[in-house]
Write a structure and sequence with these properties.
By secondary structure, the chain is mostly beta strands. The chain has 1 helix and 66 strands. It is about 0% helix and about 50% strand. Strands 47, 49, 51, 53, 59, 61, 63, 65 and 66 form a 9-stranded mixed β-sheet that branches. The protein has a 5-stranded mixed β-sheet with strand order 11-13-20-15-18, with no helix packed on it.
Amino acid sequence: MLRTLTLLAVVLFTTLPALAGPMVHHLESVQPRCGQRGTTVEVVLHGSSLHDPREILFYRPGIRAVEVEALPRYERPISMMHSGLIEDKVRCKFVIDADCPLGEHPFRLRTADELTGLTTFHVTRYPVVAEAEKNRGENETREQAQAITLNTTLLGRMGTDRQPDVDVYRVAGKKGEHLSVEVDSVALTDRHYADLEFDLAVRLLDADGHELARNDDSALHIQDPIASTLLPRDGDYFVEVRQRIARSSSFIFYAAHIGNYHRPLASYPAGGRAGEQQAVRLIGDPAGDAQTSLTLPTREGDFEFNDTMPSGLPMRVSSYANVLEGTSADATLVEQLPAALNGIIDAEGQVDRFRLKVAKGQRWRVRVFGRSLGTPLDPRISITRAGADSPEVEADDSTYQDRGLYAVGRELKRKELLDPSVVWEPRESGDYELAITDMRSLGGPTFVYRVEVEPVRDSIYTMPYSRVIDNVECMRLTNIVIPRGNRWTVNLALVEGQGNRYRGPLEIVARGLPLGVRMTAPQVVPGQTTAPVQFTAESDTPPQVALIELLVRPVDRSIELDSGSQQAFPFMGHSGGAAWKSVVTDRYGLAVTEPAPFEIDVAQPKIPLALNGELALEVSVTRRAGFDEPIEFQADWTPPGVEPEPTVTLDGGKSQARLRLAANGSAKPGKWKVALTATTTGGSYYLGAGRIRASTAMIDLEIAEPYVALKNHPTSIRRGEKDEVVWDVEPKKPLPGEVECVLLGLPKGVRVVEPAPRLKNGDKQLRFTIEANADVLLGQYKELTCEIVVREAGQEIRQRTGTGVLRVDPAVATTGRTP
């Protein structure tokens, strides 16, 4: 039952865990979710903070947006999960090229001031028809079935009451032709939080209601079903789409691709050498296996083979030759490495073996592709030296970093985790046997695998660094949005690829920057895992969008290092849910927007920040005429061991403030680049929707050894008496004259007798006179420390040093006689 959102008066509430902040996304719904290639589709975007829309940034070619305009806002906003809102609407037309790639197309909307979070739109090869049901129960039986033609994409919606919804469609078919259905529901969703409401199943029925085929989950599409059959006679047939579990939601949309296309489930081999012609056997179609030939892409990596199907078969391209499993019981000889080993675990308990000849000390990455190709195989591998009793390597599952999905959060689940990937360094030269089987001892005709054995390459990759729960996209931390004539700074995480051994310094470089935009980044020192990256847009740079890469390279250009960019977006990530969906991109969206209403600057510190010390940064804001709102600013990145104070709010009309940094004893002395970031208030303070952001230029922050180190002489004092707290002074570097000293950690009832001592160069000891009153609690106090307040070059730095102990004893007993 497909309805427009203007008819929805729905509030989606559930029992929520405690959150760090409201999850307010820019884009909460895109309607329709799907369009046919070669057509123009009117699309309405629903969400929050979408005023003054300008253009759409698509991540894939073949689709563009025209006539982007704001529609009237909702009179009553629609509340979404975790405090999300739908209050704005944007209408645009998506022009889809005739050769536009099928499937998912991520995109963002640029407004005058912001770049929204990422959402998606899907492209199909078939004409799109909407489900005709207006009220629940109008198309749940064969008698009520909505008639459609074959080779149609049906956009439907599941009902929301306590009973699972059922939608039935009628098609006319001919004897011997295919009736195939793919249902995209999890794949189509744009829900950021969900459980099992998108778990749909499909059945194919004849005119009498006899079941011809059914599917709930599929190896190829996980929780989205695929079903195909050959029709026994001419006549009407029925496609039933059913919600497996009744879950309330007003946004359970699906696309059912219904046609007479063939539907193989695997290809063998599942790849080949780049640019070559490859013979392929298509497996799993109800009409039986079929042979075809295709020219492989020239770019190495993943691709999909597709001819007439709604979705393709995942395949791989590499730069080395295929080795196909042999037909005998002996291990298949691999004459040369690197190579791609291909086979099928046809039968239960089957083990395929390949014989390799290697040299001691070589390092190989052995990466298996089975589940990641959409096959049912749960692979397990072992590598054993000839004649040895036990393997050198055994592997079943892997990590996201091993699979090259380093930006995907651990809480999300993807099928790639079931495929092992290992780095193998043979202990001896000679013959080895690589064995592969299914972990469950299962097998079948579609249990296809591919094992790529290749030299290990050093590699370090980048991704935006974010610190929010559930891996939700946080626009305030990861979006690259630069106001004209201003700056913005983001934090970049650096992630090592599997088997990386490079440990030298790095440079960060940008590819694809628009004219008028420049990027600056500090050199990355060995061991550093995050770094600030700053973008500046000249005042005459036109507002625009772009896709860019941020890569790293060794400072020594003669060293080879692989690099790339990656960002992951969870679209279905509610804990406890079985439907997991995430989108991974290999480029970052960038936008130049209209000028911000303010600029923020920070003065270059004239003195260093000492270990165990504190330094105040002087901040100034220049406001545009008419802008008198509060501004929040903070340090989003600081060197290891340096902690900034929390976000500082500069009240409306004010232009000067301070932000303090504190360095603990583990901070690394040296010079670092830092910048402060600032935003307007309002909108979403947690994810950043509805705010305008800018940052200061980068400044040099020097971290230095402390001025002095103090060692305490344990002290005791009696109630009602005076005594001294004594510190031995170890100079670290010259003091700029006499400095103020503050004794901290005294218990209530003990005070420093003024004047407090001051410290100067050459002093061997620092002595505080203290006095205890008669009520101070007795006992041992271990929190004594000393703060040295240094004023140099017009700036103040506070250094804490030393730990001491003070014991409070009873007053001395006195006796007296009456004369």
